[in-house]
Specification:
Elements (H helix, E strand, L loop, with lengths): L1 E5 L20 H7 L1 H5 L19 H14 L2 H17 L5 H14 L1 H7 L12 H14 L5 H19 L3 H8 L4 E5 L2 E5 L3 H19 L15 E7 L4 H7 L5 E5 L11 E4 L3 E12 L11 E7 L3 E7 L18 H24 L7 E2 L9 H18 L3 H5 L8 H4 L1 H12 L10 H21 L13 E3 L5 H4 L1
Parallel strand pairs: 1-3, 4-10, 4-11
Antiparallel strand pairs: 2-3, 4-9, 5-7, 6-7, 7-8, 8-9
Helix pairs in contact: 1-5, 4-12, 7-10, 8-10, 13-17, 16-17
Length: 486
């Protein structure tokens, strides 16, 4: 039996005996049949920038605001306030939740057969069957304010796992079809299906990534002081043989080019982003998929991704991205152009505001797993001692860079991260300053720094997936789980 059900927006929709007939599906009837997918999803309440508003208060509140202002003062803080006000003005012009929820209900009604099939775990070892993993994901969704229930998450994880399984087992011919934009074939007891990329599959793969991160958190033998692999804010690097995940995600109709400087030193992307599709920006053309209902893990509003060297994938979940103002929509989406334009404009403004905030202050590091060493979680234990080590070396001998025979500058940490710090510390540990003997103070500082690095690596997750660690990013291999391999 071959269903060959295609969920792509650019191909005709097949008919099934169990699907409503006629020009329009019975949306409400199908939604009731699939309550865990959309009917239980409650739209986020309030304004997304409500926590940033400044309210009148007593003297203590005022003092706190003044202290915060001192930390945030400067150029980026001032333009950040302007961005915030402009975002408020634009984001409220057109209602978003009703539009997006209506489109999702149409999608659910039209594709109920495939949704049901994909949402069934294909193995008893499935992460969608792991109660500990689901507990972690449910807690994460609640903490992050995601409008998802446990049943929603479970179905998303099972769906993402089945898509990952199809990508993992794809034959060379099927991979060529995928690269040409023809989707990926998946089979189960109901027959054979053709799946193409869209927002629904993007959410599913994202929650499956999150499930793999949660599985690392609950793995036996994990150190008690280990940092969570399911952060509130952070970056992921995944093994991606033959760029299978990258290729599939890139083919979502709403996927757009993004100007970004993340992981610029390890990207495998050679194209540069063009502003408005015309003006060269000089920045790598990374990719983004916007979720206007904020149902992704982490910050929830946008998926930023890029292919890296060594067949790896960079992923970052942001609160808002940089969606195209006149981007493509999916086949089932109706009447989205005007509303999407204004919401895309608001999100681009909010993204600029977020960028300004990150430049004006580092913020709290709890819950963050950034790919950096010079800010965030690794700044205090590694980057600060490293700067102190270089300053001490400079005091002992002004020509320390030349004596080491290498370029040794803290600015290079932004490019190369932990490997650069490690190699420099190793060189300074045995640096022959006094004749043939190393300076004891320098040697002790370098030794302590190397010990800090090793301790932080263990808390961050070690190197179990064979991915070079350059910062505090989370490392995953979603294809290595037994439910995928079987």
């Amino acid at each position: 039996m071959s269903n060959n059900l295609n969920i792509a927006p650019n191909l005709p929709l097949p008919q099934h005996n169990n699907a409503p007939q006629g020009n329009a599906p019975d949306v409400n009837q199908n939604v009731r049949q699939h309550p865990a997918l959309y009917a239980t999803v409650q739209p986020p309440q309030g304004n997304p920038l409500a926590n940033n508003n400044i309210a009148l208060g007593d003297g203590e509140q005022r003092n706190q605001i003044v202290q915060d202002a001192d930390r945030q003062r400067g150029f980026f803080s001032s333009i950040g306030n302007a961005f915030r006000k402009l975002y408020h003005a634009i984001a409220g012009i057109v209602a978003t939740e009703s539009r997006e929820l209506r489109n999702e209900r149409i999608f659910s009604a039209r594709h109920s057969h495939l949704i049901d099939a994909l949402a069934r775990p294909s193995s008893e070892n499935s992460l969608a069957q792991n109660a500990q993993v689901l507990d972690r994901l449910e807690q994460h969704a609640t903490t992050m304010g995601r409008p998802l229930h446990r049943d929603d998450i479970q179905k998303m994880v099972a769906t993402g796992e089945n898509i990952a399984r199809a990508l993992h087992h794809a034959s060379p011919d099927e991979l060529r079809q995928l690269e040409q934009g023809h989707g990926i074939v998946w089979e189960n007891d109901d027959g054979e299906f053709l799946i193409q990329s869209n927002l629904y599959t993007t959410r599913a793969l994202s929650w499956y990534m999150a499930a793999n991160a949660a599985a690392q958190d609950v793995a036996p033998g994990r150190p008690a002081d280990a940092y969570s692999s399911l952060p509130s804010n952070g970056a992921f690097i995944l093994k991606d043989p033959d760029n299978r995940l990258y290729t599939f995600l890139s083919q979502a109709p709403t996927c757009t080019s993004r100007m970004s400087s993340h992981v610029a030193e390890r990207t495998a992307t050679t194209e540069t982003h063009r502003i408005g599709g015309l003006i060269p920006s000089g920045k790598v053309a990374q990719k983004g998929i916007e979720d206007y209902r904020n149902c992704l893990p982490g910050q929830g509003g946008s998926l930023l991704f890029d292919k890296l060297k060594n067949q790896e994938l960079y992923v970052k979940f942001e609160s808002v991205g940089c969606p195209a103002y006149f981007g493509k929509s999916e086949r089932h989406e109706e009447g989205t152009a005007l509303g999407r334009f204004f919401h895309a404009l608001g999100r681009n403004i909010k993204h600029a505001f977020n960028f300004a905030q990150t430049r004006s202050g580092g913020g709290e590091v709890e819950g963050r797993r950034q790919e950096h060493v010079y800010k965030g979680r690794l700044e205090a234990p590694i980057y600060t001692p490293f700067k102190e080590l270089l300053n001490t070396a400079r005091e002992i001998h002004p020509d320390y860079k030349e004596m080491l025979g290498k370029e040794c500058d803290s600015s290079l940490v932004k490019k190369w991260g932990l490997p650069f710090i490690e190699s420099t510390a190793m060189a300074l540990k045995s640096w022959p300053v006094n004749g043939n003997k190393p300076d004891q103070r320098i040697s002790d500082m370098a030794t302590a720094l190397l010990q800090n690095i090793e301790a932080e690596k263990q808390k961050l997750g070690g190197t179990e997936h064979g991915i070079e660690r350059r910062g505090a990013e989370v490392h995953l291999n979603i294809f290595s789980h037994e439910a995928i391999q079987g």
